[in-house]
Structure formats: structure tokens, C-alpha cells
Amino acid sequence: MIERTFVMLKPDTVVRGLMGEVLSRLEGKGLKIVGMRLSHMSEAQAKALYSAHQGKPFFNDLIKFVRSAPVVVMAVEGESAVSIIRLLIGSTDSKEALPGTVRGDLSCSKTMNIIHASDSLDSAQRELAIFFKESDLVKYSRLDATWVY
Ligand code: CMP
Question: Which residues of the chain fall short of a pLDDT of 70?
Fold first, then answer.
């Protein structure tokens, strides 16, 4: 099933100049970016995105970190996009993420872990709504989606 999910390149990715590297892994996998914006997250957006972690010891540091520099927020579509992207990015703790994954290759931190992606279709819907209106998203076909062989 074609799924639409939310993906965010975190501030560490922006300030380390790794946006292109991470985007190219998503595009190379065959995923389609249908919405994308580089911006500073507001406090309200940060708290809404991470509401499940409110009250945890790392919550305040997490909010401070995601607002420390711009992020790239994206709406991404593809076959089984939610699970495929979670596999592609690797474990939350970059120190444990396997080589070959985005986090395994590019970071060794739990907070500065490069990328966030929704963990379910329900989360994707909720998280996308924090950053995008339906009218912000574009429609087009990837050439490989229409390839006839
Ligand atoms: P992310 O996939 O964006 O989802 C929630 C984020 O909270 C997670 O990546 C980590 O960056 C951060 N996080 C989760 N657990 C911890 C923890 N124990 N200590 C610090 N940060 C954490």
C-alpha cells in the first residue's frame, strides 16, 4: 500500500551539511518527497511533535535541541513508506544503529540522531498536520513508478 509519512531532518543534519546526503538516501530508495520546508520550529510545533515524551527526563533538552537550528520537514510517500523509512534510518540511539542505516553511518548520539520519521500511519497523520496543510503538498509521478517493462 502506498503510504504517506512525516520525516524531519534534525538541526544536526542541517548544521553539519548533511541534508543532501540524507535526502539522496530517501530518493535513492524510491521514496517520493511531496512536501518539504526548511524552517525554525516554533516551541508549540516542537512540543506537539514530541508530546508523547512530555514529562520524560530528556524532554526539555529534546525541545531545546530541535529548536537550536533549522530543520527540514517533509511529507514522503511510497510503498510501505512508514516501515521502509524506519528501517532505512536505523535505531533511535545512533550508537546502536547498524552500519548502512542513516543513523548508523552518520551519527553516534541519541539526541543528535540526524532524522525523525513517524512510527505508524496514525503518528504520520498527526505529525504531518503539525507542519503541513493538504494544499502545501504537490502531486507528480516518479519516472520509476510508471516504468513499463
Ligand atoms: P526521534 O525519532 O526524533 O523520537 C524522539 C526523540 O527523542 C528520539 O528521536 C531521540 O532523539 C530522543 N530520545 C529518545 N530517548 C531518549 C533518551 N533516553 N535520551 C535522550 N534523547 C532521547
Answer: none
**63, 66, 87, 113: residue to mutate for ligand 1 pocket, most atoms within 8 A of CB:** 113
Closest CA to 7 of 60, 80, 86: 86
pLDDT at residue number 148: 80
Q: How far is the CA of 61 from the centre of ligand 1 (A)?
A: 10
Task: Using the mean position of ligand 1's atoms as its centre, give its distance from the Cα of residue 113 in Å.
Answer: 8
Let me know if residue 140 belongs to a domain. Answer: no
What is the predicted pLDDT for the residue at 147?
82
Task: Count how many domains the chain has.
Answer: 1
Catalytic residues: 116
> What's this model's pTM, rounded to 2 decimal places?
0.96
Domain span at residue 92 reads: 2-134
